[in-house]
Amino acid sequence: MNFYSTNDTSHQVEFKDAVFNSMPQDRGLYMPEQIPVLSDKFLNNLDEYTLPEIAFHVADALLDNAIPQDDLKAIIHDAINFLAPAVKLDDKTFVLELFHGPSLAFKDFGARFMSRVMSYFLADGEKQLDVLVATSGDTGGAVALGFLGVPNTRVTILYPKGKVSEIQEQQLTTNGQNIRALEIDGTFDDCQALVKQAFTDKELNEKFRLTSANSINIARLIPQTFYYFNAYAQLLRQGINQVVFSVPSGNFGNIGAGLLAWKMGLPVQKFIAATNANDTVPAYLKTGVYEPKASVQTLSNAMDVGNPSNWARISDLFKESAEQLKEQVVGYSYNDDETTAAIKQVFDQYNYVVCPHTAIAWKALKQYQQSNADNEATGVFLSTAHPCKFPDVFPQEIADAINVPESVKALENKPKHAVELGKDFEGFKAFLLAE
C-alpha cells in the first residue's frame, strides 16, 4: 500500500517513508492509496474478537504487508496492552473510556503504536531520529512515555506556556533521557506552526532526520481506528448494532480516524464533532464556509485548536461529495460555562466524573439525541482523558470522587526541565541547531 499527499495524489511513498517523513514537502498529509473495505464476515462478528485481534485485522488491511504479519502482531500486542471499555450509563448512553494507557489519555493508542513502528523500521547504525511534537495537553505526555528510552531517537515537545494543566505539564517535563520539552510563549497553533515549518526547512532537514509524532503522522491515525471497531464489538455483545459516536474534537485526528473506520465498513450512523469555543468545523458544517481562526484558551485545553490539521484528511475522505460529509458528521460547540455545567450534570445523573473534553462530548450527544428523538441508535461518547489531569476544573464534591492513579502521584516531586522560547521560528531553529 502506498500513501499519497492530500495536496498531490501523484506524490506517493511507501508506509515507512510516510512514517518517517511525516508530512510531505507540499504541506499535505499522507493518506492510503486505497481504503480497504473489511469483509461482512469480520464486521458482523466483531464481538468474537479481542482488541488486539481487531487491531491486527484493521492495521493489516491498511498496511497491506508493509510490515510482515507476525511482526505487526508483535507490535500491536506490545503497544495496545491496556483496555478501552465501553461503560454503560443508561440504555441509550455509553462512555468509551480511552484513558487506561500509561499517560491516561487516548493519545496512548497512537503514540505507542507509532513509537514501536518507528523503532521497528530503524536499522542499526542509521542516523538518529528527531521527533518533533506540538501538544495542547495530552499528546506530549503520550509521546513522551511512548518514546522514553527508545534507542536512537530524540523527542522535542513544544507546548504553550500556561495553557496546559499542572499534571499535563509534569508528564511533559519530568522525563529526562531522550525527551526534552520547550515551553512556547504562544498558543498550540503557534507550536504546531513551528513544527510544520521545521519540516520544510532545508537546513534542518539536511542536518537532522526529522519526523513528527503529532496526528499529522499517518502512524498516529491508523491505531486510532482500533477503538472504534472495538467499541462496536462491545456493543454487539450486548445486542446493539446501531451506534452514534460523539467525539471531542480539537485537531480532528480522533474523529478523522473514526471516519476512516466508517469508510472501511464500520456501520456508524452518525459522527458528532463536539468542540469548545474553537468552533471552526461546526461553523463550517452549518454555513459551508471553512474559516480557520486563532485559537482561544478554554477549560478543555487539548481542543484549543483554531486551524485543525486533520481537516485536510477528512476533506480528502469526502472529496467526491461534500454533501455526504454533512450527512455523516454534525457539529456542536460549547463555552466553558456550558462545559462545567455538563460536568455537574453527568456527576449528578450517573455519579460519574468526566474531564472537560469528555463533558463536551456528552453534552453534544445529548443535544443530538434530543433533536433526533425517533432515532433508535445507541450513543457512545468518547472519554479522552482521565479527570485527574484537570483538578482545577472540578468543584470539591466532584474532585473528591476522583481516584488519582499512583503514576500521577509519583510525578509530584519530580523536577521540571523545560526551555522557554518565543513563538518565532528563528529562535526555535536556533535551539535545534545548537543541540
Describe this structure in words.
- This protein is of the alpha/beta class and 435 residues long.
- The chain has a domain at 55-102 and 220-404: Rossmann fold, CATH 3.40.50.
- It has helices at 15-21, 40-44, 51-63, 69-79, 107-121, 138-147, 166-173, 188-199, 202-207, 218-224, 226-236, 253-263, 280-287, 311-317, 322-328, 336-350, 356-371, 396-399, 406-409, 425-434; strands at 2-5, 8-14, 30-32, 86-90, 93-97, 129-134, 153-160, 179-184, 209-212, 243-248, 270-275, 329-333, 378-383, 419-421.
- A 6-stranded mixed β-sheet has the order 4-5-13-10-11-12, with helices on both faces. A 5-stranded parallel β-sheet has the order 9-6-7-8-14, sandwiched between helices.
- Strand 7 (153-160), helix 7 (166-173) and strand 8 (179-184) form a beta-alpha-beta unit.
- Helix 4 (69-79) crosses helix 5 and helix 5 (107-121) runs parallel beside helix 6 (138-147).
- It is globular and about 60 Å long.
- The model has no long low-confidence stretch (mean pLDDT 93).
